[in-house]
Amino acid sequence: xxxxxxxxxxxxxxxxxxxxxxGLDLEVPAGAVxxxxxxxxxxxxxxxxxxxxxxxxxxxxxxxxGHDVVREADAVRxxxxxxxxxxxxxxxxxxxxxxxxxxxxxxxxKPAARDRAAELLEAFGLTDAAxxxxxxxxGGMRRRLDIAASILSTxxxxxxxxxxxxxxxxxxxxVWDIVRVVVAHGTTVLLTTQYLEEADRLASRIAVIDHGRLxxxxxxxxxxxxxxxxxxxxxxxxxxxxxxxERLLAEALxxxxxxxxxxxxxxxxxxxxxxxxAAAQASAALARLAGAGIVVDDFSLGQPSLDExxxxxxxxxxxxxxxx
Amino acid sequence: xTTTAETTAYxxxxxxxxSVLAPATRPPxxxxxxxxxxxxxxxxxxxxHVPEQxxxxxxxxxxxxxxxxxxxxxxxxxxxxxYLQFLLPGIMVTSxxxxxxYTGVEVNKDIEKGVFDRFRTLxxxxxxxxxxxxxxxxxxxxxxxxxxxxxxxxxxxxPEGGFVGVIAGIALLLVFSFAFSWVxxxxxxxxxxxxxxxxxxxxxxxxxTFLSNVYVDPSTMPGxxxxxxxxxxxxxxxxxxxxxxxxxxxxxxxxxxxxxxALFVAVFGALTMRLYNxx
Lengths: 324, 279
Hints:
The structure holds two protein chains of two kinds.
Chain A: E1 6-15, E2 18-28, E3 33-37, H1 44-51, E4 59-64, E5 67-68, H2 73-77, E6 80-83, H3 95-105, H4 110-123, H5 139-150, E7 157-161, H6 169-184, E8 188-193, H7 196-202, E9 205-210, E10 213-218, H8 220-227, E11 230-236, H9 242-253, E12 257-259, E13 265-270, H10 275-291, E14 296-302, H11 306-314, H12 320-323
Parallel strand pairs in A: 3-8, 3-9, 6-7, 7-8
Antiparallel strand pairs in A: 1-2, 1-4, 4-5, 9-10, 11-13, 11-14, 12-13
Helix pairs in contact in A: 3-4, 5-6, 9-10
Chain B: H1 14-21, H2 32-49, H3 55-77, H4 80-99, H5 101-111, H6 114-120, H7 128-155, H8 162-190, H9 194-210, H10 223-231, H11 233-245, H12 251-278
């Protein structure tokens, strides 16, 4: 498909003094998961709300499958479903009632709406809770109901605004599995997140935004090669071993080693964007430390955190707390 | 990606999810009426889940009727029963118009919730969300009217207009209340909190209902007050309802109420939708 699912050009949204979205350019190809990564207040939600026709842009243009979000709002609405950051379902109604209501609003007649609701409740494992008010649901159940509501009429574009924020790991995995099935079915998914891991696992392309502007864009591989595939975190038993450990790590990893405030901790950003290289380097480094007789209490290889990505891309941390 | 064999309550299976994603032919978008009625159904469900909220359409009107009949009846009309013949249509109007303000409170409570975002991203007739609230509220207005009528009949209200006159009076009251409620949907969208909606509602409703011909004949009032009372739409509505229930329909007043209703919908309906689209 040639036509992108979403095209934003010089999009602007101003709230009072704040330029929440400040000249954002973006092109989201159809048929895949596109991740939008950024800290709180980066403008992700504002951008998403403009795409979903909930907010009117103050400048620039946004089109969804070629339809302008202002001039052809109805055409956009009939192709897009939004699952907001806060559950977009009615707390006081039951799960079944929520789905029947929305199904009716999409044009299904009553018996068809009821069948469709039952079908989705079943597929999302909510049949037992169908008759309970949503306010009694757990976070994961609520999120599942929310996504079910978004695919009552399978949309061409599904927008998920931080779908896993606040969920436990199991519920988060369920959401990821659902997203994979939805995208395999041909729906384009736009996903905002604060977690690099989430974007990496799901998205085929990622945009990093900050202060309402695009600061990096590419495949997860490209993005990681610009910031390093991962970080090695090491904690030693004895603080006295740190200088020696620093030297050994620097040699083995071929990367600058950062000394943490904690006198037994060291960190290094490694790899050139390829996970297997990072893993090989990390195990070699661990062997060197062991060989030198340095006792290691903790050794981990993880993906760079959002803070590290931001440090690498913008020279400032993602959050105020991280700066402190 | 690890797929551990957890014994979880729910494990999404691709097969099952795919089957519900099957591209069933999309139904045509619902008509304006059908979308509005669906939102009306939502309002009914809310009443079903929180029936306590019907307190204000049952207990409050009974209290109003009893209070004012026995408080003023002897002094103003010689006896409570005689006063009731004059007061009942007016107290019915006051009670129903008073409870229209809950429309604004409901809208204001909902607008902050995520579910409103979903409604606003649906390709449906835009005002249907608001019309739905009003349809649900019509049920409340009907309940309040019937409760007052029953209390009145027990207390000795004997309308000259008979069954037809009373039904016509209530119908006119419902038309006006539906139109007047658009004032509250506007405030519900405009103001920041439930409390401020309540505050503004009281500020508007108290003078509007008391400075009218509900309780006493305006000719006993000072001239400057009469001039307000005479242009107050509530006065017009009370005259019309009273005339219908009294069996001598005042065509001028009835027409006036219908025109006022049309104006309320045109002005406040348009303002409401403007705010709704901008929110």
